[in-house]
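OP here, attaching both records as promised.
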Amino acid sequence: MATLCGRCLRHTPAYDATITAFDYAAPVDQLLLQLKFGARLALAPLFAQLLHAAIEQQSRWDAPQLLCPVPLGPARLAQRGYNQALEIARPLARLLDVHLQPRLALRVRETRAQSSVTPQERQANLAHAFAIAPQHVALLQGCHVGIVDDVMSSGHTVNALAAACKRAGAAKVSILVVARTPLRQR
């Protein structure tokens, strides 16, 4: 049976479930940094397989109808040259046999990297940062969306995107992340 942390009980998140493969700790943290900042794209399929294995271990797994990677802003995408969440989502969609919608969500406002702001600033940093592409709103009506990302620390990024999905009509949002910062470090 799933349990909620005290923070989630006080402030109900917009998403309905979270599945993660690892704590964000050594050696996974270093491998994720190599993917994210070192262009080690060959790591993405491995992370997708490991996340898929974690999903398969869930006894009451309700597969989403589509996957949506957390989008990067245009400036960060141009700087990096790729979106690590999309690189993980592509093979994960194939493994789950779920349709991938890489352009479902848009980052409509450039934000500072969450790692560069204080925990108290993170929610404000992401205010109004995401929108659902108008041509895809109909896809979300009553849909179960799986949001894919590499790392979840405070949860503000995925929560902001989940809220945008729910406002556009999604019935359920599940977060699928490779690694999550342990509660004591958030």
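Record two, same layout:
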Amino acid sequence: MEVLFVGSECAPFVKTGGLADVISAVPKALAGQGVHIRVLLPAYPALEKLAAKAKEVIRYDSLMGGPARVVEVKAEGLDLLLLEAKHLFDRPGNIYLGPDGKDWGDNAIRFGALCIAGADIAEKGAGRWKPDIVHVHDWQAGLIPVYLRQRGCNVPCIVSIHNVAFQGLFDDGLLEKLGISPSYFTPDGIEYYGRISFLKAALVFSEKIATVSPTYARELMSSEFGMGLEGVLQTRRTDLSGILNGIDLDVWNPETDPALPAGYSVRALKKKALAREELARRFGLEAPKGAPLFCVVSRLTSQKGLDLLVDVLPDLTGRGAALALLGTGDKQLEDSFLAATRRYPGQVGAVIGYDEALSHLMQGGADAILIPSRFEPCGLTQLYGLRYGTIPVVSRTGGLADTVIDANEAALVAECATGLQFSPVTAEALANAIHRACDLYSQPQVWSAMVRRAMKHPVGWESSAKSYAALYADLAVKSGKA
């Protein structure tokens, strides 16, 4: 089965979040299920050298205001299709934001062009290759099902919602520029409170909808989590699937990770202590004795609940624990954590920014990772934590609820706990979870057993790959493509 993935980022080429990891990992995982995937991406500056060596398969004299082409190339175990359009994508810095930190003013046009290229490949092919199914990821690829419907092309589409909070909302005056008939701009179509919604377009016109955890799939149909799209999703209930994300077990492997001072495994856990010492040194911390070294690797936003962590730092430090934080985002939160490093010297350390290698060291060196998200479609950092024996302390929402087994009394007696969950998402509940973690850490045998179970917990793509393959097969049968 031939499948076209269309998305705005893909690791290791360009990454702003977990979406990039998923788009990179799924094609490799599905190769063993008889599914061949090609990934269509914009040729951002980071991909220019790769694109220069690639073979041209589609040429545009004018695509959204300038010349463009699609090229094919293999890299990092992936079959890539790159959309070269320098007038749209040859820009420094963040792929979505300008130097002022705000969305590029022409994002609708930029990603509209990506959608046109995706629809062209679905309808006419790229060189000798043509997909049986198109899988679009998040709002940036959301117009593809509409373009195919307009053209009368029957290649089926599936859309994955990685985060419903990002919907791609734009002025309706762009309909003509985007090449969309006004007949689609209705409440039952792509219109969302008087604006164009790229994501709603995909939800309405794709044959199937997927999201990244079973709990998040259910949450999306509620007003609390649906972000105004719960009504659409309720009408598509029978077409909605929740399939857990996984992680690349080769990239995230504590036995072979070059970012760690020494590899370790379930059978050889003592060397994890070397990573702990190195982590403490890198963040200027006094490695705590008898208390956990917590870490946070996250975007600093209210969605991630990190304002609550600021509030409970007295609880954490009062227990003799320490915190190492890596992240960037809301300026007020950045300033709050930098101030905390001065207020709690030796106990709180923060690096504002993102460093992939440092994130690996943090997963290897910390005792526990804090993820107090208000909502979390799936989350990957808790999966990395499980893989590295760094106990996740998570809010009970979305994929966090689906992947971490809370260390309540029953789970401890049954010897199945892999982390801690808390609810509701409040400062008080987070503080209680931190105290619980400290209490468990003070019982070395209990903590060590939980670490070993966490490291054995399946976090790869094997099970989810089978679910995706089954979803594709069902879609192909129903569309007559099988």
